[in-house]
Task: structure prediction
Amino acid sequence: MPITVHAALIETLKRHFALRNSRLQTLAVLIVGLVQGRTVNLSHVASHFPGAAQHGSNYRRLQRFFQSIRLDQAVVAQIVVRMLDLSRSKCLALDRTNRKVGCKDINILMLAIVTRRFRVPLLWTVIDHQGNSNTGQRIELMRRYLSLFGAASIELLLADREFIGADWVKFLMENKVPFAIRVKQGQCVALADGRLWTITSLLRRRRKSRSLTTFQARLPDASTVLSFAVKWIDGRKGQQGEWLIVMTNSPDAKAAINAYKNRWAVECLFADAKTRGFNMEDTRMTAPDKIDTLTAIVAMAVTWAYRCATQTMGMKAIKRKTHGRREKSWFRIGLDALRAWIAFAPENALQAWQSEFPKRIKNL
Result:
């Protein structure tokens, strides 16, 4: 690992994290080792320490880091936004990823930025139980976002069918958060006459068509009228199609359901953090505080990769293959470039990291 890259990370990170120099060095090793090794396995990352210390000593040093250090998510979120120049209003996606380590569930509720090019972790909550998040956890996560960036920074909040409920929707409405949330066909809604219907019943005589249909209704336990947009999605080969039903407080329900397709980017983000990128599933850590710290490190590494993709591609578009999909994702282009630059052209890696790295984050 070129010492120049290592030293540059320490110099920039110390502006924002109140850590002594040895901890900053360990943090820099974690970020660079994560990129070069494409794994969060600490035994592999330990080989990226400069100097002549034994591998076992470096490994224990990494373990002590995760036992003692908690990186401030608010600081990491602002670093991500400033490095990627995402201060304008943007789409956010709320989703949850879950896996098992032995008999222990690793359950992360994540709020991510999703744009045409970027899908980046912003804020998250490590849930200490299996299954869905609850309303309190979602509200707490959104409160943290709103305290940092405000509701005006949200173009649209996208969420899947798990993220439903009258209290949750009421919170979003009261805080002026525009949203597009998918709902199940069996969801009950109240029409203008006060009668309750399932959406399945309302769609019974509707022809299965890709053309959009909209109607207004409210959730049974809520007083606010919302817009619903519906269209039919054909199934893939051998699979049945289904109705895509999106609930929104946006004045343009058709635009909201068209924007909902961007929610899939958060699923791609989880893949980037796992098998297609940094292999988060390689870790055997299960403590929520340690997973929180690891996710913060992954967020900074993802951001660095995207900065490299921007530097590599400029305004060019990624070529499409004959089947219509892109040759590579923006993330993979950046990650491939970053790994090569750290090894053979460290000045390029430094340019991508330092050129947009904020000097100092205030008011935290």
